[in-house]
Specification:
Oligomer: single chain
Helix content: 25-40%
Radius of gyration: 20 Å
CATH superfamily of the largest domain: Type I PLP-dependent aspartate aminotransferase-like (Major domain)
Bound molecules: pyridoxal-5'-phosphate
Structural class: alpha/beta
CATH class of the largest domain: Alpha Beta
Largest sheet: 7 strands, mixed
CATH topology of the largest domain: Aspartate Aminotransferase, domain 2
Distance between the termini: 53 Å
CATH architecture of the largest domain: 3-Layer(aba) Sandwich
Strand content: 15-25%
Strand order of the largest sheet: 2-10-9-8-7-3-4
């Protein structure tokens, strides 16, 4: 057998959220932090038109999409690179900036792809401790060494839902050596309600070592398309354009992205649903006596006290066609992560959970 680099075999492959339709049973998929309303109609329409041109290579520079993103976010189109999901951009950052002997830092319960991508690049992932499942600036700074090349911070974080406020981000950046790239992963930024939050875009213009990554997979409900983007200083954009594939974003994805950016009605509906159903779910779960971590994302993390209890709940819900995410991969085996679905889905899921808890009390 031809062997890959040793470090590759240390990677535990990413396992996505489960779902499996049983005949005659309604499927409620709350296991992958997807949007509950399907894709934006304007994205679907744009993609249908683009399909006629699938015999052509896409625009390798994503010019029209970058222009649309720049206008929407009031930033410079030249400081944007698009990718096949933000996962691709995270992995390319590791490939470009970290290698054998380098360290990639993230907080203990940070998004799994940081460690996976670091190891894929041959670098060493380093996890800094958290405080009550929230990133801790002091601990992150204490974990920086002369080998640290990148610090990934999901803000808000998946799977915990916690976030750092603008002041904390500024503090973190001020104390971080300028030789470390601070990557603010803003996959869930649209859902945040706290006015003291920053998505980080204004900081990219001010500092040479801050990068923001974004995705179309969450608020735009387009996870299946694989479309993400990054806002970064020119020198990082230059590097990314050297390491990415020449046509890394398909012609359909580019068109769908432009369509989605015009679909304000879809975004408003999704946000309103998330706000209402997240609050409703937290209240209902707390009334069941469960610990729920405060979340600014489109999901909540619920603690069932023991790994056995969490797994029993997960399996029971699965039997009823309701899929939630188990958390052993994050070393949070007593928890389940529940994505916020439509109001109807949440009412059904919460009722099923409540009935189970009452029966097993
Ligand atoms: C924090 C975070 N970053 C990035 C991603 C990856 O998103 P994409 O679908 O754009 O690759 C996810 C997906 O779950 C996520 O939770």
């Amino acid at each position: 057998m031809i062997k890959a680099k040793d470090s590759i075999y240390k990677i535990n492959p990413y396992v996505g959220g489960e779902s499996q339709e049983k005949e005659g049973q309604r499927l409620i998929k709350l296991s992958s932090n997807e949007g509950p309303y399907g894709p934006p109609p304007m994205a679907v329409e744009a993609m249908k038109h683009a399909a006629d041109n699938m015999h052509r290579y896409p625009d390798g520079g994503c010019v029209a999409l970058r222009q649309a993103l720049a206008e929407k976010n009031d930033i410079d189109a030249e400081k944007i690179v698009c990718g096949a999901g933000s996962d691709e951009l995270i992995s390319l950052l590791c490939k470009a900036y970290a290698g054998v002997g380098d360290e990639v830092l993230y907080s203990r319960y940070g998004f799994l792809m940081y460690a996976i991508s670091a190891m894929g690049a041959g670098a060493t992932p380093v996890a800094a401790p958290e405080q009550d499942l929230c990133a801790d600036v002091d601990a992150l700074i204490a974990a920086v060494t002369e080998n640290t090349k990148i610090l990934f911070l999901a803000n808000p974080n998946n799977p915990t839902g916690s976030y750092l406020k603008r002041d904390q981000i500024l503090d973190l950046h001020a104390r971080l050596p300028k030789t470390v790239l601070l990557v603010l992963d803003a996959a869930y930024t649209e859902y945040v309600e706290d006015p003291d939050f920053t998505d980080g875009h204004d900081l990219v213009a001010l500092h040479d070592n801050i990068v923001v990554t974004r995705t179309f997979s969450k608020i735009y409900g387009m996870g299946g398309v694989r479309l993400g983007w990054m806002h970064a200083p020119s020198h990082v954009i230059d590097v990314m354009n050297r390491v990415r594939g020449p046509f890394n974003v398909s012609i359909e994805a580019q068109a769908a992205g432009i369509g989605a950016l015009q679909d304000d009605a879809f975004v408003e509906k999704s946000l309103a649903n998330n706000k209402k159903c997240r609050a409703m779910s937290v209240t209902a779960l707390q009334e069941m006596g469960l610990k729920v971590y405060p979340s600014q994302g489109n999901f909540v993390l619920v603690d069932f006290e023991t790994a056995e209890a969490a797994e029993a709940v997960r399996l029971h819900l699965k039997e009823e066609g309701i899929f939630v995410r188990q958390m052993p991969a994050y070393n949070l085996p007593t928890c389940l992560r529940v994505t916020i679905g439509t109001e109807e889905e949440m009412v059904l899921a919460l009722a099923a959970l409540k009935a189970y808890i009452i029966r097993n009390d």
